[in-house]
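Blinded run. Sample ID left blank on purpose so nobody reads anything into the name before looking at the predicted structure. Input follows.
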Amino acid sequence: MRIKINISVNRAIQILLAYLFFIVAAESLFTPIAAVFVTGFIEGATLKTVGFALALYAIAKSIVQVPLARYLDRHNGELDDYYALMAGAVTGVIYPLLLLAISKPWHLYSIEIFAGIGGAFLMAAYYSLFARHVDKGAEGFEWSLFSVGGLTISSAIGAAFGGVLADAFGFRPIFLIIATINTMVFFLLLRLYPYLDGARPVSLPPFSPIPKNPTTKQ
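Blinded prediction complete.
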């Protein structure tokens, strides 16, 4: 008996998934060994420095992302989401290059706040675009690709290679590799532009019947 499996993902989702895979893999080259870098190469840094830096990143991202997502939701079309996505992608290119120059804990704190704001722009827009372009009837499958491929497998690959590279060549090449990868996939996002539809589905009141052909804001 022949079993046919038909798996198709639209081009916008393909681009978004590929972008997420590579930026998470690139970030994971450094993240698992960040504490080693901070305590070993920054004057006066301790494990407390690592904790405070991560906290500042999380606080900055949390403060910016929710209001930004609300702002993006209130505006028609997808261009605002796209430009926010590109702004976040730029910070992903700059961040590892800044790490090359730090020598004091306050440098690290400032960079992590910058990265947190960039991460907020990136993910607020990313979730919005991904949710709107996901194929109807394949939501579970495509969100699973987002989770497994974009976050889990990419993290595992990046962490494994990051440890090997740092052990063999040190941290400087890792930062340059991260910047290179993030630059390359930044240009991948340019291919997303033609797939922006320019209209956002109108929200339906709670418990109202869902029409077969929902109208859109123009």
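Unblinding after everyone has recorded impressions. The two ends are 50 Å apart (CA to CA).
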